[in-house]
Amino acid sequence: MARLPHSAGSFVRKILVSTIRGYLGLTLRTTRWTFSIDPEARDVLTCQDGRTAVVAFWHEVLPLTPALWWWAEPQNPAMRLHVLISRNRDGRLIADIVGKWRIWSIAGSSDTRGKNKGGAAALRRMRARLRHGGIVAITPDGPRGPRRQAQQGATALAALVRKPIVPVGATCRGIRLNSWDKMILPLPFGRGHFVCGAPLILPREKEAQAEHSADRLLAEAITKVTLEAERPWVDRPGRQKEKVWLAPLSLQPSRVWSWVATGLAPALPFLLRWRQTRGKELPDRVREKMGFASQGRPAGSLVWFHAASVGELVSILPLVQLCLEKKPALTVLVTTGTVTAARLLQQRLTHPRLIHQFVPLDVPRWGQRFLAHWRPQAVVFTESELWPNLIGLCHRQNVPVALVNGRMSERSFKNWGKLRPVARRMLERFAWIAARSEEDAEHFRQLGARSLTKAGDLKTAAPPLPVDETELLAVQHQLTGRPVFLAASTHEGEEDALRQTVQTLRARFPSLLTIIVPRHPERGATVSALFCGAPRRALGQVPAPTDAVWVCDTLGELGLFYRLAGIVFIGNSLTEVRTGGGGHNPFEPARLDCALATGPRVQNFQEAFAVLGQSVTTVHTAAELADWATSMLNDPECRQACAAQAQAVATANMALPEQLTDKILALLSS
């Protein structure tokens, strides 16, 4: 019973916040706004080229200022706005009202009568926001006046971070309240006017007299643009004027996609259970894909990395490791979509501050549940992982999202091109996109991405695949004297074609051992049956001298097999692949001194194969593959030359992980 007053008070407060927000939203949406903006002010108000500023306006126009944000945000959805709002009850009410519109509050005010009310902490937060690409808005005469007199704070902040101040004045059809600031209560279906003056550049001065002079200059500038706003019929030379109807930026890249995902949600658990019966989900962790966490969230900062499957995971492991090394208090959450990738992460990288979860399906309610539990400070997606609902939810909660090794194949580009508005709204929400290649960057740019950063392919910068040295020596001893040919990461349908290759090579080189590593280890028994019950490494079987094939259906051991074989065929690339092919990462074997061949279907790694050039041979049939392997086995010098050429390319960009890690860690402060 003792909790009833608190609960009742909270309920009444929620009703009050919703009512005021609804009324304010109605009036601002139905007002026809005219904006008169100085050209330089326009650039900093929309954070063009990373420029930021302090925005200053009188307390009386505070209810109108969401309209200024609604005007600016669509021009750069990656920007962030923070407003200094008092810690008192009225201030917290205002913060809750505007928070739904992604106007984030910084609580605090100056010391009053010797009592610290959070001014120092607020100053530190404002300084951090400005230094990391955000906008900070201040009412210099708030929170309690005197009216239209600038207090110390705005000018000191601007001088401290060496950022300009943009003076803003506004008015609209409304009622002047009988308050100290004569606050404007807007009325619906009227007209309004914003005036944004030229940015003020303040010198870094320390003397009290100079500070008072700066405050006086700021007050005069804000009063001037306020008076101009009250006279909208007067044209000002050099000002850009536009008339617009405004509304908050939609935080969902696609409402249709959100509705479809929500509608399908009741059926998705049955799909997950069906996948579980096929070994594609872990029974005790299948609920993670519905947003239910299986672990608690540690205290402190947390960065969320997402990689769909094995290839994407391998590419981001150096970033994860560097983040953990550079930030001793940081927790890294890694999500994957496949069980295979989860097992690989467990093998490759264990750390007390590293947590793995399965990514939730792109259902809004499931994504909200996931984000509410983990509360990441930054999110990093990988390659082509573009999920509209998850990205929109992160944007709604002011969590910066980045894309590393961004990949946009020609086919994906054409598909997203059919949904160009959705793609644009989704890509605009990324804080930055590090594209894998210039071609990928151009595809992202044409679809509407704004913050593209020059990067490169992470797969050219990864360290060599690891190996258990003891196991390597043991297998080398078992295969002493036998040449080895490796078919790596093969897919269904491909092994049928490889049977002819194996027969031809066996006839030419009787002692040759062909190692076949299926991309999905669970297919090991099927592949073994194709080769007359060939021994399987997953069962601990070792090839006898009479065995032509060894099926290595284990996970995370490609580093071992690349070191055993000097010649490698990269799978998922022959025309016989039933899934359509696409190739696999050629840099992994290239870094380990292997001569390489591939089939023609390499569209998923087209740029990588183009960079490797003539060091990789393309074969179209099983007979061509056998002839290539024969030439490599007969001419060791040619094999070594091809391997050395590929290795030089695959190790040419080793500084990239360090550069991207610094950009990711910078997001924590944004």
Automatic annotation (TrEMBL):
Q: Which SUPFAM superfamilies match?
A: UDP-Glycosyltransferase/glycogen phosphorylase
Is Transcription regulation there in the keyword field?
A: no
Quick check: keyword Membrane in the entry? no
Q: Output the Pfam families linked to this UniProt entry.
A: DUF374 (PF04028), Glycos_transf_N (PF04413)
User: What is the enzyme's main class?
Assistant: transferase
Q: Which residues form the 3-deoxy-D-manno-octulosonic-acid transferase N-terminal domain?
A: 285-461
Quote the PANTHER family the UniProt record gives.
3-DEOXY-D-MANNO-OCTULOSONIC ACID TRANSFERASE, MITOCHONDRIAL-RELATED, 3-DEOXY-MANNO-OCTULOSONATE CYTIDYLYLTRANSFERASE
Q: What is this protein called?
A: 3-deoxy-D-manno-octulosonic acid transferase
Record organism: Acetobacter malorum DSM 14337
